[in-house]
Write a structure and sequence with these properties.
It contains 7 helices and 4 strands; from the N terminus they run E-E-H-H-H-H-H-E-E-H-H. The chain has a two-stranded antiparallel ribbon with strand order 1-2. A two-stranded antiparallel sheet has the order 3-4. It has 2 domains: about 5-35, no CATH class; about 50-155 and about 185-205. It is elongated. It has about 210 residues and is mostly helical.
């Protein structure tokens, strides 16, 4: 051993530990530090400087919420247009026509806008590695998935499922109406977001990056 060597060492012959040049308290402290560095803690240290996954998840979630925010603004303007038309018809018919549908559409648009803005806020938190952002984004994605399916299930409107071209006018007309088709794109979108966020939330290899 060197003259200034001290600490715990591994014997190259018997593979046992021995101390050299230290007092008893220092040996105990060194042993405790070594026991604390488990494979789990070493793995966390190696993974702590890799924010790619949370940044990607945050950007994707913010993008989806921004698209829904733009859609909600279009819903608000549509409701305003419908409300203006209803007011005009009501004036002509002396109030015989109900004018509440446009107001309902406007309120629905504002609710959608509030949810979208909240989602964008928590998406930014998610990108910064905040646990509350990850939890809130996951909850919003799950609720959006449920609402997408429920909205389709309770929708009693009809859409055209078969079109025919008028041989005389050359205009496409609906020949058969049916129930609205299942929202495949929306379902796949929200299922993908839920799976991605749930993986970050419940996998120890990833969720240690959030505080």
């Amino acid at each position: 051993m060197d003259d200034d060597a001290s600490g715990l060492f591994d014997c190259p012959y018997c593979d046992q530990e021995f101390e050299w040049g230290t007092d008893e308290e220092e040996v105990v402290s060194n042993k405790q530090r070594k026991l604390k560095r488990t494979p789990r803690s070493i793995d966390i240290e190696l993974q702590s400087d890799n924010p790619t996954l949370r940044l990607t998840a945050g950007i994707i979630f913010i993008t989806v919420m921004a698209i829904y925010a733009l859609s909600s603004i279009s819903v608000i303007f549509t409701g305003m247009f419908v409300s203006a038309v209803e007011d005009g018809v009501s004036d002509v018919t002396d109030g015989a026509v109900d004018t509440s549908f446009g107001v309902i559409v406007i309120l629905l648009g504002f609710v959608m806008l509030a949810i979208s803005c909240t989602g964008i806020y928590f998406g930014v938190k998610l990108s910064k590695g905040k646990l509350i952002g990850l939890i809130a984004s996951t909850v919003i994605s799950v609720l959006s998935l449920i609402l997408t399916i429920v909205q389709w299930a309770v929708d009693d409107s009809e859409e055209c499922v078969k079109w025919e071209t008028d041989p005389f006018l050359g205009i496409d007309t609906c020949a058969e109406y049916g129930t609205p088709s299942f929202p495949i794109f929306g379902t796949i979108l929200w299922v993908g977001l839920v799976a991605m966020l749930a993986t970050l939330l419940f996998t120890p290899k990833f969720n240690h990056q959030f505080d």
